[in-house]
Every structure is written in structure tokens, then in C-alpha cells.
Amino acid sequence: MHTSPLLVRSGLTLAAAAALPAALAAPSAAASGISVSTTGSAVSVVTGACSEINGSWGNAALLTSRQANFSQGRQSALSGTAAGQSAAWTGVRPGTYTVVVVCSSGSTAGTQSVIVSSGSGSGSEATTSSTASPAPSRGVLGGLGGAARDYGTLTLGIGAALVSAGAVVTSWYLRRRSKPHRL
Q1: In sequence order, which residues have a C-beta less than 8 Å from that of residue 12 and are 6 or more positions away?
Q2: 18-60 confidence digits (pLDDT tens)
Q3: How far apart, in whole angstroms, are the C-alpha atoms of residue 64 and residue 95?
Q4: What DSSP state is assigned to residue 151?
Q5: In b/e form, how buried is each residue of 22-33, taking b as 16+ CB within 10 angstroms?
Q6: How far apart are CA 79 and CA 27, in angstroms?
Q7: Cα 130 from Cα 162, distance rounded (Å)
Q8: What is the pTM assigned to this prediction?
Q9: What's the Cα-to-Cα distance from 13 to each of 29, 96, 156, rounded to whole Å?
Q10: Which stretches of 49-103 are assigned E, i.e. beta strand?
């Protein structure tokens, strides 16, 4: 019986298929090393991902939806210790903002969006919520299954190649299986 090589090949294929989603998700998981919170009109960010270089931990920027890059945002220097660094902004108007933290080494510690809502009455705290990804710039794309992320040509090409390769391998295997005298 020749089932053991078949089982080994099937096991390797299953292991590779199981590892693929983890490998593709790794960059996005590493990019969320910050925690953003709001109290009233103040926004603060905390991270532990930066290291001190020449007396600087890095900078954080608060970007509105109309600002495209880090240099356009309202910047604040990170302060703290090796255990954690933080930055804060006060007098933030209600709206949706994106917080970006860039360490002094030049690496991005994380990006997170936050919604600051106005409070009712004086002295009350604002209702806030935060998400782990930036707010969609074009809203919900209803015709594409409600997805708000626009995948690039390279990502779609790789996906199509994987699906095509799977279809070819499946048809080849089924054809070989139907004719056992062929190798």
C-alpha cells in the first residue's frame, strides 16, 4: 500500500495552508502596538514599543481625515521610560482622528483611529470609541460585500494565482486517481 507518502504530502499541504493566514496577518498584528484613549477633549496614546535614542523616544501625530501623512498632523513628543511611553493632545474638537506613533529609530509603533464626540452640558466627559484600524476614507463599499478596504492589484493577483493553482492540483489529483495504472 502506498498511503503513507500520500498522507505525508497531504499533511505538509495542510500545514502550509494553515500557516498561510498567520503569515499574511503578521504585519497587521505587529502594527497595533499602541493604545489610544480619550477623556473629554483630550486624546492620549501609550506604547511600549519604542526605545530611547539620543534622548528621544519618538513622536506621535494626531491626524484629521483630511491629513494624509505624519508630518501634516498635530505632533507631540513621546515621554516616559523603557516600560512605556506616552503623548497627549488637549483641546481636540469632536471628530474622527488617526493617531500615528513613530519611534526615534524611524519605525512605526502603530496606527489607531479614535472618535471624539462632544459631551452634553459643562464638565461632562465625551463619549468616545476607538478602533484598531484607520477610518475608511471612502465609507462602506456596499457593492463589494460591505468591505471598506481596497485591496491592491498585487494582493488580488496572488489570491487568484493560489486559487488557480489549487484548481489545477485538484483536477490533476482526481484525474490520476481515476486511472490507477498511470503514474
Answers
A1: none
A2: 555 544 444 443 445 888 888 888 899 998 888 888 888 999 9
A3: 8
A4: -
A5: eeeeeeeeeeeb
A6: 26
A7: 35
A8: 0.49
A9: 25, 44, 22
A10: 58-63, 74-77, 79-81, 84-89, 95-103
